[in-house]
């Protein structure tokens, strides 16, 4: 009986302990080998992004809802170009963390400051995933972007006012009349 209590106590302790969950790597081993060979100095960011900061920029990083203006060059792991601004194309403008761009871009923008320059390597799950973006981007493509954040327009929308307090309830023993 004593051993049973000890075993149950141990099981309860183990069940109550918070599991340590490692972030799953989103690159395949082959892609990761290429990334580590081409960019050994790349740091690991959120959601398996890899990045190299070329210029920190100034001020605070872009935040959700901020409108950003960027110039970029997008290539595949093998260096083939699939998209870029410049050459007669204007800079790209979008709002951060509003679903207007691939998830990897939303994450990268929140790590960048105005005037900053960064190389970002985005795994397929944080880019176009299994659907791709035909005809430019095939399915399951790892994307490499050289991004220059030219301008941040901060969100100026004030927060909504707090809700009014609930009305006071009359006590059943109160002698006041309700109107």
What does this structure look like?
This protein has 179 residues and is of the alpha+beta class. It has a domain at 46-153: Chitinase A, domain 3 (Roll), CATH 3.10.50. The chain contains 3 helices and 7 strands, in the order ααβββββαββ. It has helices at 2-16, 29-38, 103-109, and strands at residues 43-44, 50-55, 67-76, 81-84, 92-95, 117-122, 143-153. Strands 1, 2, 3, 4, 5, 6 and 7 form a 7-stranded antiparallel β-sheet that branches.
Question: Which key terms come to mind for this protein?
Answer:
179 residues, seven-stranded antiparallel sheet, 7 strands, Chitinase A, domain 3, alpha+beta, elongated, 3 helices
Largest sheet: 7 strands, antiparallel
Task: Supply the number of helical segments.
Answer: 3
CATH topology assignment of the domain at 46-153: Chitinase A, domain 3
CATH architecture classification name of the domain at 46-153: Roll
Query: CATH class of the domain at 46-153, anyone?
Result: Alpha Beta
As a percent range, the share of helical residues equals 10-25%
Number of strands: 7
Strand content: 15-25%
Helix-and-strand structural type = alpha+beta
SSE layout and pairing:
Layout: H1 2-16, H2 29-38, E1 43-44, E2 50-55, E3 67-76, E4 81-84, E5 92-95, H3 103-109, E6 117-122, E7 143-153
Antiparallel strand pairs: 1-2, 2-6, 3-4, 3-5, 3-7, 6-7
């Amino acid at each position: 009986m004593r051993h049973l209590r000890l075993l149950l106590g141990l099981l309860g302790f183990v069940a109550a302990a918070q599991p340590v969950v490692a972030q799953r790597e989103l690159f395949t081993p082959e892609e990761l080998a290429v990334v580590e060979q081409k960019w050994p100095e790349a740091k690991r960011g959120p959601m398996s992004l890899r990045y190299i900061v070329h210029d920190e920029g100034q001020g605070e990083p872009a935040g959700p809802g901020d409108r950003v203006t960027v110039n970029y060059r997008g290539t595949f792991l093998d260096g083939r170009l699939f998209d870029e601004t410049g050459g007669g194309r204007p800079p790209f403008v979008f709002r951060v963390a509003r679903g207007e761009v691939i998830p990897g871009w939303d994450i990268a923008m929140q790590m960048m400051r105005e005037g900053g320059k960064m190389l970002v390597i985005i795994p397929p799950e944080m880019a176009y995933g299994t659907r791709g973006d035909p005809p430019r981007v095939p399915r399951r493509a790892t994307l490499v972007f050289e991004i220059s954040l030219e301008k941040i327009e901060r969100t100026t929308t004030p927060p909504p006012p707090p809700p009014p307090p609930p009305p006071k309830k009359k006590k059943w023993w109160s002698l006041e009349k309700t109107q």
